[in-house]
Amino acid sequence: MGWCLTDCSTTLLTVPRLGIPYFTQGKAGGGRLGGFHHVPVLLGEVIHYLAPRAGMTVLDATLGGAGHAAAILERGARLIGFDRDPEALAHAATCLSQYGEAFESRRTNFSDLLAVGREIAPGGVEGILLDLGVSSHQLDSAARGFSLKSEGPLDMRMDPDESPTAAELVNEWEEQDLARIFRDLGEERRAKAVARAIVRRRVAKPFSDTLDLANCVAGVVGRGGRIHPATRVFQALRMTVNRELESLEAALEAAPALLKPGGRVAVITFHSLEDRIVKRFFKSHSALEIDRPEWPAARPNPDCCLRVLTRRPVGAEGSELRNNPRARSAKLRVAEKLDENEA
After folding, report:
1. Does domain 163-241 sit in CATH 2.102.10.10?
2. Tens of each residue's pLDDT in the chain, 343 residues
3. What is the rounded distance in angstroms from the CA atom of residue 30 to the CA atom of residue 8?
4. What percent helix, strand, coil does the chain show, rounded to 5?
5. Assigned CATH class of 33-137+244-337
6. Where in the chain do CATH 3.40.50.150 domains reside?
7. Quick check: 74 and 10 in contact, CB under 8 A?
């Protein structure tokens, strides 16, 4: 545990079937550092598939709370970290300072993975990690505007210098556009009714804080069930504000070009749309041949450059779910770049 800060109370456990450690919060300290806290999901599984070691360069394109990054660095690899959130980068700089030049970070969106990655590692990297979850710190911090439990500004931006904010969306967008993202990104069954209620309410008073919006949505959806009634609407707003699906698609397209042959890309998703995008990308870039009804025979796939290592997504289980309920929706998919003579 040489990488762990003395006050983070991290405990090493063994991942079933993999026989390697992952990290969980202890009772003291709660995994916090200067107010920033985050519990990395599927950490043991990520380490198993990326297999970091001395001489490797791994790009963590979603640095977040730096839990995955710390475990990778501890195993001797060089780590490049990307994040849009200046608070996350400041936390990582402190948490990972003991690794010196082995750790390097950039404030950037992972959609710029190829351009910025090549700037730092022109020869390519052996591993890429994309953890698409929002950090525990961001979810729980009222000031960031993600929380359903605490009053805060209706913001939801990963990068505070970008726009729009969630308040701009709910106060300015047309009703049909709000209904569309609530349905498509939030999978909210009452999307139209929620959008209608928001548009009617904002005429009298624009929305400015999270609890105001959450209560408005709850009044339409109704309370009950294991999740807050506004969860899906907040998810849709967050994904829209931060252009999450667009960024994911751009990063996936760039990943094979940055990976060295034999290098691996690991993606952790928390939403069915995200997982579907990753699944389809891996499938379309691992099929040896493609076929169409109008063709007399199948043809070689010009995009084939990957080998899928996870036929089914890997999920959290057992003690991880007990210690971190937010891991219940996490899915990990991993692919390996083919050698030139295999593609």
Report:
1. no
2. 232 322 333 333 333 333 333 333 332 223 444 455 567 899 999 999 999 999 999 999 999 889 999 999 999 999 999 999 998 899 999 999 999 999 999 999 999 999 999 999 999 999 999 999 776 666 666 666 667 777 889 989 988 888 899 999 999 999 999 999 999 999 999 999 999 999 999 999 999 999 999 999 999 998 877 788 999 999 999 999 999 999 999 999 999 999 999 999 999 999 999 999 999 999 999 999 998 899 999 999 999 999 999 999 999 988 898 888 878 899 999 999 999 776 6
3. 6
4. 40, 20, 40
5. alpha beta
6. 33-137+244-337
7. no
